[in-house]
Amino acid sequence: MSSLRLSKRGFTLVELLVVIAIIGVLIALLLPAVQQAREAARRMQCSNNLKQIGLALHNYHDTFNALPPLAITPIGDPDDPGDFPMAGAVESWGWTAFLLPFIEENNLYETAGIAKGVQLGTQLTLANTVVSGYRCPSDTGAAVDDPAQRFMNGAGSNYGAYNNSLSGNLTKTADGGFNLNLSRKFRDVTDGLSNTLAIGESCSRLNGQTMSLKSWAGCREGKDGNCLDEVGLSGRWPINDTTGNIDQKGEALSSLHPGGAQTLRFDGSAHFLSENIQFLRPAAPANNSGSVDSLYEYLIAINDGQVIAEN
């Protein structure tokens, strides 16, 4: 009888290299799609955070018939020089601290004694408590005070409240919705709640540059005497601008979402604002020191009469 011999044939080296190359190409094609899907999910979560903040602002207004101030300077604080803009040089609870009961963080609010006249300077340990609703998931920067974050004190927040469309300092005539020791009402936003920016993003790093996370607790010794950099934003600098120094970056709307940043309007709606929105200035790194004359500024000013329905 003749026997049938079966031969086993494996891959040749060339075939193996071809298979590996094909797998590599597939991974290269698939990876960006996976990354984009993940970023889309993170961006949606960030948008949801802002919507919750918007709901909290409305509930706060319903409760107190006013919006929270940008921050409150303690009366009689020995470090308070009593004038603007240097009035931000003392430890002051910020707007995000006042909203805690309205974002399901009432226990932290009560423990810190925010409603009982307890000053921030005595509660710095509690100020290190991370509040997830104030963090954008796209920003993986330090959750708690980092020496590299010049304006961040305690646990960070990715959201700042708009104080003004031009100035980098707190002023009594600020045209934004939030100011030091001042609570505005919805009726003050005469350009329309759906047409005016209330809150925007602030990231920790961008394109290799150190930016500025905010502090949810507020202004701890108001570094550089300017509380704005710790809890607020202004329209003095373009979106995602990295040409200025750390003081300037602390005022700018910035995010790690490609192409722009998430914002909240006074009606509670969240919108992604393109970094290419009209913004007028002489040339980088000069700031916007002229008049209110661009689309971005019009969206910030609450009563300039320039009603912009930008979507």
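^ that was protein a. below is b, sequence first then the tokens
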Amino acid sequence: MGETFDFSAALCRMKIHGAKVRRQAWKPNKYVWLKPASEESMSYPELVYIDGSGRKAPWGVTRCDLLEADWEIAP
């Protein structure tokens, strides 16, 4: 386990450093990052599954995720 932080710090890491972040409470097969803006859409948080399925989906922070301080940089 590495350094953990709250959601505001996780958001800063995504916005400023392009980091992929996850919660320690989540199963280890997913992370969130900020998908860059394109001609078709603005930048938005995207949930990515790293289980070989290739699944990706727009992601909105939940109340539980917003208040927890177990965010970390995803491997």
